[in-house]
Amino acid sequence: MKRIGVLTSGGDSPGMNAAVRAVVRKALYHNVEVYGIFRGYAGLLNGEFERFQLGSVADIIHRGGTILHSSRSEEFKTVEGQKKAVAQLREKGIDGVVVIGGDGSYRGAQKLNEHGIATIGVPGTIDNDIAGTDFTIGFDTALNTIIDAVDKIRDTASSHERTFIVEVMGRDAGDLALWSGLGVGAETIIVPESNYQMDEIVKRLQHGAERGKKHSIIVFAEGVGDVMAFADELKKETHTQNRVTVLGHLQRGGSPTGFDRVLASRLGAFAIELLIAGKQGRAVGIQKNELVELDYDEVFNAPHHLNKTMIELAIELSI
Ligand code: ADP
Ligand code: F6P
After folding, report:
1. Is the pLDDT score of 38 beyond 80?
2. What percent of the chain has a predicted confidence (pLDDT) above 70?
3. Which pLDDT score, from 0 to 100, does residue 172 have?
4. From the alpha carbon of 127, which atom of ligand 2 is closest?
5. Which residues are annotated as catalytic?
6. How confident is the model at residue 214 (pLDDT cuts 50, 70, 90)?
7. 120 alpha carbon – ligand 1 mean position (Å)
8. What per-residue confidence (pLDDT) applies to 74?
9. Which residues line ligand 2 (CB under 6 A)?
10. Mutation test of ligand 2: which of 107, 169, 175, 247 has the most ligand atoms closer than 8 Å to its C-beta?
11. For residue 319, what pLDDT is reported?
12. Model confidence pLDDT, tens digit, residues 233-253
């Protein structure tokens, strides 16, 4: 492996820059040339490459977003698009690519592999929805951003004695909702992995009110559905006002936490170790604080589970 590329793809996440830095520095440490590929697969198709040196990734470990920019490309999903991308890589003499992104990006990486380009996937998404790794890069930062926001919402909820419903991201996964809900002491956490019972929620709110609770926080994962419809239904059932806050894209920004910086540095460097060792078509991850590697298909076929014990704990602690 003499020359490799690195790109970030799909929804950006805090810590992607730290991962890019680790990829670049580790490759250069081993005398492997590195090209930054801009705008994910869209930029790969257009040959948006830049030769990176040590200084190209200076002063980025603490920055949110991704200096490489990110995108979603429909063209790359086509065989013609993939062939165009491979031709761009061949022209530059690049024979390996580190893809930092979510499972959609991994599917693209798998296609590149099938066309003869060695790829390694690094899990970068706030959603924590990639099987085979305990954590994805950006999850911890987004979690802390949500906790900070909900703590503030709790102040006003308490002053006005209101119920707040806070919608958090996570796509189809409830990890951000479950972890943040536990972290803020939410009265109710609603996740896509289990059907909610409105009568149960109402009962819990009433039970809380009876013992003097004046406000409540409900954390609602976006993957569950229409938060406004949920809020209306709740209003009808409880005959009380509520307020909805959709946290939105602020959850994707900000300086990465220490945890995400370290995770990104370890995973990015590990991806280069694998490429240098001649491995390809692998996704890296962390399990019980050990670095692991899996085939893409193992990642795609393993179901992503929410931690059941944590769901039970959240219910027990919010009585
Ligand atoms: P994420 O990586 O965060 O899950 P997406 O699902 O949007 O984000 O995927 C990012 C990009 O990966 C897509 O825009 C597309 O270019 C590429 N991609 C996704 N699925 C496939 C696929 N089945 N084949 C080829 N490329 C894909
Ligand atoms: O995958 C990251 C994520 O932020 C999800 O949590 C969310 O559903 C989605 O991306 C939003 O995508 P977009 O930035 O295209 O609105």
Report:
1. yes
2. 100
3. 96
4. 6
5. 127
6. confident
7. 15
8. 97
9. 11, 102, 125-127, 169-171, 222, 252
10. 169
11. 77
12. 999 999 999 999 999 999 999
Answer whether 35's CB lies under 8 Å from 49's CB: yes
Looking at the DSSP bridge assignments, the partners of residue 283 are 121, 294
Burial category of 294 from C-beta neighbours within 10 Å (exposed 0-12, middle 13-18, buried 19 and up): buried
Question: Token pair of 147, please?
Answer: 């906790």
Rounded-to-integer distance, Cα 117 and Cα 49, Å: 16
Please report how many Cα atoms fall inside a 13 Å half-sphere around the Cα of residue 35, on the Cβ side.
24
Q: Give the C-alpha separation, 234 to 294, whole Å.
A: 43
Angle, CA 227 vertex, CA 224 and CA 232 arms, to 5°: 130
Delineate the domains of the chain, giving CATH numbers in brackets: 3-138+256-301 (3.40.50.450), 140-252 (3.40.50.460)
219 in Cβ contact with 188 (< 8 Å): yes
Whole-number Cα distances in Å, 7 to 45, 124, 235, 238, 280: 12, 11, 46, 49, 16
217 strand-pairing partners: 164
Average pLDDT over residues 144-159: 97
Q: Which residues contact 245 (CB under 8 A, 6 or more apart)?
A: 149, 153, 164, 165, 166, 167
Are the CB atoms for 32 and 1 separated by under 8 Å?
yes
pTM: 0.97
Residue to mutate (ligand 1; options 105, 133, 252; most atoms within 8 A of CB): 105
Query: Residue 300: how many CB atoms within 10 A of its CB?
Result: 16
* Residue 18 and residue 36 in contact, taking contact as beta carbons nearer than 8 Å: no
Strand order in the sheet with 33-37: 49-52, 33-37, 3-8, 96-101, 118-123, 282-287, 290-295
Residue 164: phi and psi, rounded to 5, are: -110, 135
User: Mapping DSSP to helix (H, G, I), strand (E, B) and coil, where does residue 81 land?
Assistant: helix
Which residues sit opposite 52 in a β-bridge? 34
d(CA 92, CA 77) in angstroms, rounded, equals 22
